[in-house]
Amino acid sequence: MLDVKIKLMRENASLPEYKTAGAAALDLSSCADGPVTLLPGQRILIPTGIAISISSPDYVALLCARSGLASKAGVALANGVGVIDSDYRGEIFAAMINNSDTEYTVEPGERIAQLMFMPIERAAFTLTDCLDETERGAGGFGSTGK
Q1: 136 falls in which pLDDT band (50, 70, 90)?
Q2: Which of 8, 63, 73, 95 could form a disulfide with 82 if both were Cys (CB 3.0 to 4.6 A apart)?
Q3: Taken in order 23, 72, 113, 118, is the CA torsion positive or negative?
Q4: pTM for this predicted structure
Q5: From 3.90.1150.10, 2.10.109.10, 3.40.50.720, 2.70.40.10, which CATH number describes the 4-119 domain?
Q6: Helix intervals (H) in the chain
Q7: Across residues 34-41, what is the average pLDDT?
Q8: What count of Cα atoms within 13 Å lies in the side-chain half-sphere of residue 53?
């Protein structure tokens, strides 16, 4: 099991928690001082009130959208997935965006994102003039069909 130290950064911060025994990620809650209203298309940083220390540089914490919030209200992470490096020690904020056509109010304590820990591999690059051939080759966007 990965050792992660956690620091509560705000008075009303709550510890993240796995909601079920099979959950892959922990729920993070808004730690804003009051309700935060996102207008359609608006982006805003919402504090979670926590900072973490990951015990190994071989791991990363990923901030992921909550599927229910995204599918029901159109509110998700503006950056898709947030990357929290093992050497970051500041408060974790969720960059939220309202993709719907109606305003949405995030209440203090509302679950807004998920925090997942994943192992990482660091790449070692080798400069070359040619790459190995594949069936796909350089086929890009849409090249494999619909």
Answers
A1: confident
A2: 63
A3: positive
A4: 0.88
A5: 2.70.40.10
A6: 67-73
A7: 98
A8: 5
